[in-house]
Amino acid sequence: MASFPSFPWRRSRREQPEQPERSPRRITPRLLLIIAAALLVLIAGAAAVLWTQPVLKVGAVEITGTRHVPVEQVREVSGVTEGQNLVRVNESAAATEVARLDWVESVTVSRSLPSTVRIEVTEHTPVLFTREGDQALLIDAHGQAFAYGDPPEGTVEATGEGITGEAADPEMVRTLVEAVNAIDPGVRAQVASVSVPNQWEIEFRLADGRTVYWGSLEDYRDKALAMRTVLTREGQRWDVSNPRLVTVR
């Protein structure tokens, strides 16, 4: 009888008993709390270091938007200096101090990593000025008086009780500013002053001596267009109180 060599007995993979699948380890609420607490400790520690140690320093103070306010004055009143801790720069306090400057209408202070503080200034736009003794009081595009100083080129002098006296109406002043802004830039450059004895008898005087009577500020846009038209014609005194029927006075 033939004999066969014996081999070690092996079981195929298919014949091996299946192992039960291990379910993934679940993250328990307790573990989540531990992780969250650890993160909070790390964040608090990092914040404490940044607050107490000058890890991030102010390397530059960038100031934009100034034409009449000296840059150094803005830098000084802001209280922001190069080398101080960037994290401890008080943006609100710096903006409040800069906003106190006469010419500043609004200001934004911001920090930019790694080392820059930006101060963005918006200045008042002067449109009119009035005389108070030997001083000129500047009035901006919103009809607000904001500073004493030399009137910039293109600013129109306003005279008369209607704008300088106790009877001056703030709403009328705002409308007058809008009316001046509605005048064609080429014409406005010729205007020397506007007389406002009251709100019904407004008259513009040009540098060459000509005058244009507006009367009230009603329909001021139409009157501004009529003013541009009549100044191309011969005549010294024009009346555009009715912009559809202009006359020589």
UniProtKB/TrEMBL annotation:
It is found in: Membrane. The keyword Cell cycle applies. One of its GO terms (cellular component) is plasma membrane. It comes from the Bacteria. GO terms for biological process: cell division. Keywords: Cell cycle, Cell division, Cell membrane, Membrane, Transmembrane, Transmembrane helix. Residues 1-23 are annotated as: Disordered. Residues 14-23 have a biased composition (Basic and acidic residues). Residues 56-124 form the POTRA domain. The keyword Protein biosynthesis does not apply. PANTHER family: CELL DIVISION PROTEIN DIVIB, CELL DIVISION PROTEIN FTSQ. This is Cell division protein FtsQ. It comes from Corynebacterium oculi.
